[in-house]
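Below is a typical protein record.
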Amino acid sequence: MNFAELIESATKIKRKTIAVAQAADLDVLQAVTEASSKGIADFILIGQEAEITELLKGIGSSTEEFHIIDEPNIKRCCQLAVQLVRDGEADIVMKGLVSTADLLKAVLSKEHGLRASDLISHVAAFEVEHYDRLILVTDSAMNIAPSLTEKAAIIENAVKVAHSLGISCPKVAPVCAVEVVNPNMPSTLDAAALALMNQRGQLKGCVVDGPLALDNALSLEAATHKGIVSEVAGYADILAVPSIEVGNILYKSLIYFAKAKVGAIIVGAKAPIILTSRADSAEAKLYSIALASLYADQENR
C-alpha cells in the first residue's frame, strides 16, 4: 500500500468526525478542506471563529462545510476537542495551532481525558521511493527510553495500526546498531526478548525478530550477505526503535534526506490523536487524517 491507496481506502469507509483543537492554521485547514472534499471525514473546528473563517475564505473553502466552535482560549480548545470525543460527537482528536503539551494534558487527564491504557505511543507511516510498501516507525515522539514492557506495548500499538492498513501479520524488526545480541548493548537484549515473547504468544498478530540492524531489516540483499535467516529480515513492515533519539533522527532523516512522505498518529488512547508538527506539510496532515480514520474504523469494529 502507498499513500494514494491509503487515501482511496479512507474514502470507502464510514466518514469519521474529527475535532480540531485551535484550527486557525493554514496547513491544517488546507488538509481539512481536502479531506472533507474527498469524503474522508467531517470536521468540528475549534478556535477563534473570525480567524478560522478568514483563513478558509483565503483558500477558497466554504465555511458551510464545517461546524465551527468559537473558543479563543487555547487550553479550552484542547479540552473541548477531547470532550467531543468523550461524548461521542467526534471520533478523532486533531492538533491545530496548539502546543503538544497542552493537547496531551487534555488527552491524559484522569478525570476528563481519553486514557485507555498506561501507554500511548506514536506511529509514523512512511512512503519511501523504491519501496513497495509503507514502512511504520515507532516510537519517535512519545516514549523517551522505554522499558522492555513498554517496548512490547509500543509494538502492540503499531501492530494495530498495521492491521488497519490491511497488513494481516506485520513483520516487526526491533532495530539496533547490530544484528547480534551484545550484553554491552541493552537494546539488543530487549530485541531478543521481544522476539522470544512473540514466539511464545505474548505478542500476537505479528512476527517479531531481532535484534536487526536497519540495513538487514529492510534489505534482503544485506541480510543474505550477512547470513541472516529470518522471516523479518529484508521484509520489515514495522521498525521498532530503542529510544526516542533514534526514532526522532530516523523520522527526520527519512523526510529530509530520503524525501519520504509521512503520516502519523498517536495510539493507545480511547481514540486516535493526530499530533502533527507545525513543520509538517498540509500533505502530511492529510495522510495523517486518512491514517487516523482507517485506524478508528478498525477500532470501532
Summary: The mean pLDDT is 95. The first strand starts at residue 16 and ends at 21. Residues 148 and 190 are 6 Å apart (CA to CA). The longest helix spans residues 282-300.
